[in-house]
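Hey,
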Amino acid sequence: MSKSTSTVAELLQNNADNLTRAERQLSQSILVNYPVSGLGSITAVAKNAGVSTPTVARLVKKIGFSGFPEFQAALRNEVEATISDPIAKHDTWAGQAPNEHIVNKFTDAVIENIRHSLGQLDIETFDQTCALLADTKRSLFIVGGRITRSLADYFFLHMQVLREDVTHIQAISNAWPHYLLDMKKDDVIVIFDVRRYETSTLRLAEMAAEAGAKIILFTDQWHSPIAKLADHTFSVKIVVPSAWDSSVTTMLVVETIIADVQTRTWPKTRQRMEELEVMFDRTKFFRKFT
């Protein structure tokens, strides 16, 4: 994977097996409060990690940078990307856009996002996440933000059919304490949070973590601050030639998880589906052609 398509965090994670003990210690230090932890002077970065300055210089070269300045420039670019508003996103693409139709440009970007994100997907994390979601002994809570609430709503609709005890937390933060009141240790909360990361969603995640809940996070390639609290994180590429980010890759992962959970819970899920169909027939919810 090229440096240009990877975040610094991904480069560190992809090269983990090639690092020395001191370099791994430094890498972990940078990832703990990423990306801010890598923005100090080379001396400060080394001191915070408890390693030598030469170790910092060796690590940044090992993951593909010419030196510490280029490493920090990449981090600064990532910080800028995470706080970009729709106008800035549009202007970035408009200035780089090749002379081809938007259908081709957009589709190519989405396909690259999917390829990159699936290449980074950890199968063990996927399986553990699906096992948590299928465990009906745990209450399940789902929440999204200003943009991601549509993803949260879609996920909630399907999980509510697959299993019992599923709650869709409203995006209005002043209603959250009522939901947290019922959250118990080892319950599961699924959070959708992409750039520009919402402060109120972070506060909710902090309170859920304090309650002992397991946090499953869907975020972007730069990682929401909630990642440091999450038990399982799915980070996907979302950049497309638009003023808005794409949800296609996130939706792909979400639908794959739904399919897996459905398989795990099928005997009970089938019964719930049959009961649901009876209610649909009684209320004449769907049009019949026979």
